[in-house]
Amino acid sequence: TRPFSEATAQAVDDEMQRLMSSRLERVRTLLRERRALLDRVTAVLLEKESLEAEEFAALVGADLPATAAA
User: Fold this and answer.
1) Which of the chain's termini has less CB crowding within 10 Å, N or C?
2) If we measure between CA atoms, which residue out of 32, 28, 60, 33 comes closest to residue 44?
């Protein structure tokens, strides 16, 4: 037996579903908003196959808001 009721389990499941749906939509929005940046990084990676952290930061740094790292 579980130490919580079926109603509690359902409430937790419902909240998790809401959170996951919300985050999925946020990710989709970010990908749409930053498509040009994603394409630029893709092109460089197809050419070079890998990037050092400094190269990546130089490539995307100016296009990322300060909150993106959080």
Assistant:
1) N
2) 60
Question: What span, in angstroms and rounded, lies between the C-alpha atoms of 49 and 39?
Answer: 14
For 48-68, the pLDDT digits (tens) are 999 988 899 898 886 666 655
* pLDDT one-digit tens code per residue, 5-30: 999 999 999 999 999 999 999 999 99
HEC states along the chain?
A: CCCCCHHHHHHHHHHHHHHHHHHHHHHHHHHHHCHHHHHHHHHHHHHHCCCCHHHHHHHHHHHCCHHHHC
